[in-house]
Amino acid sequence: MDANEPLGGAEFAPKQTYLNTSACALLPRRTIEAVTLLAEETADGRPAGAGDFEIVAEARATFARLMSVHPDRVAVGSSVSVHIGMIAQSMPAGAEILFPEGDFSSVITPFTVRGDLKTRFVPLERLAESIGPETHLVAFSAVQSADGRTADFAAVRAAAAAHGTRTLVDATQSAGWLPLRAGEWDYTVAGGYKFLLCPRGASFLTVTEEAQDTLVPIHAGWVTGEELWTNSYGPVRELARSARRFDEPPAFLSYHGAARSLALLEEIGIERIEAHNKALAARFRAGLVGLGHAPVPDVSGVVGVPGLGDRQAALREAGVLMSARAGFLRASFHLYNSATDVDRALEVLAG
């Protein structure tokens, strides 16, 4: 895979060396145009109101294809913590929930605030072997936010199946560059404003049909009815039979943009983006080793470097944007990056 050139063509024109998608993605030009158009139409008093449910359905369907599930298995919302909060509130009292140590707080906190659940934490590399018959749910990020490590999906899935344990995967740091089959997990969640290139305010939840039966739609409203426009007053007569029963009212500006961003990812192809991102990450790891540093060993498109978090400010001053997380310097590569970006970052770190 030739990673010398970015993907996406004229959709992106960053003015700095941007290696910070794990914090927030660059928006494609088409996405900015869609959001601007809706904002201007709404300011003018558009006849249909503040947005179109058909465009939300378009975003839902494209996300479903990217995650290899049917659109009926996808709910839309505003944030990962809201999706996970609904899952947490649906757990039976006393249930054991298993997490990797140091996973992202939005994966963990909705469960810990319950107060009546048993939460257990183990090293990421021991996650699969720590699943037992008493484990009701195992919840983890596909790619760890702090350092870019990837979980052993096959081992976790096999252990969960052997013990009848439900599974929750946070794909926020992976959806958009790492191929995932959401139907292999009871629940997946993904914030849209990172590798999915969406405006903040768009997020996605997938739920298997079996898991749907025990998930309580605690924020159900008129948009969650099976017939969308017949439930504006009084109790909703019938909730949607699909995962749409778990929708939040969509933030239309975000979703008008999300539909365009997700279409771009589909046009390019997740497998192609994966190869591109991993090639850049491998180049960066090799360069770091040459400078005497020890990046976290993985094949992830996100690279954590222990002990270099204090270099973030100097990098920013030199026009290279990365994150500092939990003592790690974190570089995250995406379709708009190139080998030139990698080499510039290494040049600054070597100076």
Index terms:
seven-stranded mixed β-sheet; alpha/beta; 351 residues; three-stranded antiparallel β-sheet; single chain; 34% helix; 15% strand; 12 strands
Short account of what is shown:
The chain has helices spanning 29-44, 53-66, 80-89, 105-112, 153-163, 209-212, 252-268, 270-290, 312-317, 339-350, and strands at residues 17-18, 74-77, 96-100, 118-122, 135-141, 166-170, 187-191, 203-207, 302-306, 320-321, 323-325, 328-332. The protein is α/β, with parallel strands linked by helices and 351 residues long.
Polypeptide structure, described:
The strands form 3 sheets. A 7-stranded mixed beta sheet has the order 2-8-7-6-5-3-4, sandwiched between helices. It has a 3-stranded antiparallel beta sheet with strand order 9-12-11, covered by helices on one side. By secondary structure, the protein is an alpha/beta fold. The mean pLDDT is 96. Helix 3 (80-89) runs parallel beside helix 4 (105-112) and helix 8 packs parallel to helix 10 (339-350). It has helices at residues 29-44, 53-66, 80-89, 105-112, 153-163, 209-212, 252-268, 270-290, 312-317, 339-350, and strands spanning 17-18, 74-77, 96-100, 118-122, 135-141, 166-170, 187-191, 203-207, 302-306, 320-321, 323-325, 328-332. It is 34% helix and 15% strand.
